Structures are given as structure tokens and as C-alpha cells.
Amino acid sequence: MEKKAVVLYWSRTGNTEKVAHSIEEGLKEAGVNVSLMKIDEAEEIDYFDYDLVCIGFPSYFWHTPKPVSDYLTKHFNNHRRQGKVKWGSPKVPGKNVLIFCTYSGPHTGIDEATPAGDYVEQFFDHIGFNILDKWYVLSEFIGNTAASTEGRMGDIRGLPTEDELNKVKEKAAILSERL
């Protein structure tokens, strides 16, 4: 039976969008039926229609951007009204999520991104989805040369590179084997 996935993302500068496209390509090459959507185009989707939901966003001040938080909250409230948020958050067989977050981390590195990934994880854990993984992709801080060259992560201009995006694509193909 063909597996079905959706790659949802929000991207202001294009970094997260690049990663989303790489995930889409990797899943497609692995034989997964994939839809790719910006979150503002995906208001009406039901996560439960998919074997895998991939959701991506940049980290802003240790959080998701407001449009992502609003999107997740709206869907969570809909799931609660539908009775899909249950005590103990029992796992729903065959329902999986991949969380991916782009970050620059000019001050404290990846620690600036992990709280945002953990936050998003809770929305899916509460509806019983299996968290397959959380990927953090170092990316250029577009529009701020100092943050892209003088921060803890060193010179991150041009990230993610094509080579790094190809690695994301390969990881997505491997991830599909877990569906």
C-alpha cells in the first residue's frame, strides 16, 4: 500500500523552504505519495489523512514564528473538539511526524532551536502521533552579516549548501522506511 505524506512549512527567507523541498524529493524518490504546502495553504488539511506529517519552520528567539504557533494551535483546538486529544496521549498506529527546524544560533548555537522543536512536538504527541525525529538544519541568518559570521556557529553564510540539502533528501528517503 502506498504511503501518504504531507510536508508543511513556513519560511520567511527561503531556508526552511529549501529543506522542505529536499524532504519532499527524498520521500518521493522512496515511493511515498507526497504533498508539499505552505502552512497558510493547508488550513483545511487533517493530519490524520497522512501516514507522515513533516512540519518545518525557523526558530525565532527559541520559539516558532507566530504564524506557525497560530496554525498549530488552531489544529490542536480542532482535534480537541473532535475528541482526538485523549488522556495519556495513546499512540495512533501508522501516524507519524517529522519536525524540522532551521536555525542560525548566533548566540548559543543549536540550543536556540531545540525549544521550538520541543514545542511543536507536543502538539503531535498530544494527538498520539509517533515522533520519528526532529531535524535541526543550520542556516544562514539572512539579512544579518554579523549573525552569519561572528556568532557561535562561525561563518554560516550560504547554508544550507546543496550538499547539505542532498543529505536531508537522503535522510528523508531512509526515514520513509519507518512508515
Short description:
The protein is α/β, with parallel strands linked by helices.
Mean pLDDT: 97
Specify the helix fraction band.
25-40%
**Broad CATH class:** Alpha Beta
Shape verdict? globular
Q: Into which percentage range does the β-strand content fall?
A: 15-25%
CATH H-level superfamily: Flavodoxin domain
| Largest beta-sheet details | 5 strands, parallel
Number of strands: 5
The radius of gyration computed from the alpha-carbon positions, rounded to a whole number of angstroms, is 16 Å
Report the span from N to C terminus: 11 Å
Number of domain units = 1
- Which parts are unreliable, with pLDDT below 50 for 5 consecutive residues or more? none
Q: CATH topology, what is it called?
A: Rossmann fold
- Summed up, the helix count is 5
SSE topology string: EHEEHEHEHH
* Structural class designation: alpha/beta
CATH-level-2 architecture: 3-Layer(aba) Sandwich
The main sheet orders its strands as 2-1-3-4-5
How would you describe this protein?
The protein has 179 residues and is α/β, with parallel strands linked by helices. The protein has a single domain (4-178), classed as Flavodoxin domain (Rossmann fold, 3-Layer(aba) Sandwich). The protein has 5 helices and 5 strands. It has a 5-stranded parallel beta sheet with strand order 2-1-3-4-5, sandwiched between helices. Helix 1 packs across helix 5 (162-175). The radius of gyration is 16 Å and the shape is globular. The model has no long low-confidence stretch (mean pLDDT 97).
Ordered list of secondary-structure elements with their pairings:
Blueprint: E1 4-9, H1 15-29, E2 33-38, E3 52-58, H2 66-81, E4 96-103, H3 114-125, E5 130-138, H4 145-149, H5 162-175
Parallel strand pairs: 1-2, 1-3, 3-4, 4-5
Helix pairs in contact: 1-5
